[in-house]
């Protein structure tokens, strides 16, 4: 079976509407389609999708990854802590910024964390786990991921 690569995704020839779609469409796919449309909030599925996306990104270092994360307008990431066991990545301007909060404890950026997990796992050549520990939607002033190495 033939597969699309991330490089294929960059081949865009859309003369009138160009290479972007509105953020509300992305949010609708993420939150209404995946999160509300799948059983259990789409948890396992979203993780699988995110990891696969992360593994497909053409990056060979964490620096490359942070760069492409911003280029794809997922958010503006910065490393706020790094030691031999974990890396914390804060993300400003995440897609969720401005959304109303529904439940006090419910963070919504699981796909984005899974993208980081897939990409970092591939860069380091071993499994890592990523958890969202702060989210705009739960009242924090940015989203933040903890990467366990
Ligand atoms: Zn978030």
TrEMBL record:
Domain of life of the native organism: Bacteria
InterPro entries tied to this protein: NO_sig/Golgi_transp_ligand-bd, V4R
Span of domain 4-vinyl reductase 4VR: 86-149
Protein name as catalogued: 4-vinyl reductase
């Amino acid at each position: 079976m033939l597969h699309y690569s991330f490089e294929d995704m960059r081949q865009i020839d859309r003369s009138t509407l160009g290479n972007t779609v509105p953020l509300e469409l992305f949010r609708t796919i993420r939150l209404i389609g995946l999160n509300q449309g799948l059983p259990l909030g789409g948890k396992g599925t979203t993780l699988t999708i995110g990891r696969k996306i992360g593994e497909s990104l053409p990056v060979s270092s964490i620096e490359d990854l942070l760069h492409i994360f911003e280029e794809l307008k997922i958010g503006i990431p910065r490393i706020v802590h790094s030691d031999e066991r974990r890396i914390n990545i804060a993300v400003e301007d995440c897609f969720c910024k401005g959304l109303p909060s529904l439940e006090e404890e419910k963070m919504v950026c699981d796909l984005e964390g899974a993208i980081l997990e897939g990409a970092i796992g591939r860069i380091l050549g071993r499994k890592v786990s990523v958890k969202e520990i702060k989210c705009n939607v739960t009242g924090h002033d940015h989203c933040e991921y903890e990467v366990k190495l």
